Amino acid sequence: MKNLIFDLGDVIIPIDLTAPVRNFAMLANLPEDDVRALWKQYDIWNQYETGLIDDESFRTHVRQLLKNDAWADEVIDTAWNSVLLDLPVERIERIKSLQSKYRLFLLSNTSPIHIRRVNHVLTSLNQPTLEELFERVFYSYDVRMAKPSPDIYQHVLTEANLVASETAFFDDNSANIKAAEELGIQAIHVQPPKTILDYLKDV
What we know:
By secondary structure, the protein is α/β, with parallel strands linked by helices. The protein folds into two domains: 3-15 and 86-199, HAD superfamily/HAD-like (Rossmann fold); 19-81, DNA polymerase, domain 1. The protein has helices spanning 19-28, 32-42, 44-49, 55-65, 73-81, 89-97, 112-124, 130-133, 140-143, 150-160, 174-181, 196-199, and strands at residues 3-6, 103-108, 136-139, 167-171, 186-189. The chain has a five-stranded parallel β-sheet. Helix 11 links the parallel strand 4 (167-171) and strand 5. Helix 1 (19-28) packs antiparallel against helix 5. It is globular, with a radius of gyration of 17 Å. The protein starts with a strand and ends with a helix. This is HAD family phosphatase. InterPro entries: HAD-like_sf (IPR036412), HAD-SF_hydro_IA (IPR006439), HAD_sf (IPR023214), PGP-like_dom2 (IPR023198). Pfam families: Hydrolase (PF00702). It comes from Spirosoma profusum.
């Protein structure tokens, strides 16, 4: 094994996928189910994470959807970033310890607001940013593709000049794992109560 590819959410940083909807519902004084239905109907999450809309368009959509033009950018960003939980520094330290042995990459379905927040947290903990921690980062909004599409995995392999059979991929989502396996990548399903540290013990 020469190359390790990591997912971000629930692999490096714990996440709560229900938190943004919960917080936006609270801000808008609407039932969570109503906000969740709107989110799903207009597919804002996916549009933003695949780069179809930028930060400003995302915030504008949120204001229009939840009928509140008065929300400042910071209010929307804070509610959106509530998906991100406390970052365990020991996971970053373990990944850093692998830099001399493997080529390290990040592949994440994410948005610019989330990445800026994660990097802010990392620097506040005296840790390298994601772009410094990995040889290359592949963000869905940047490449305009998202897991589990086979295209995004092929893009990473091609761009980084990786051989699939020499590459391990760590992700918490079973569909993402299956898609990677079908391309010949050794995919490891990170499942609680285990964390990425458990899967890296023998690496």
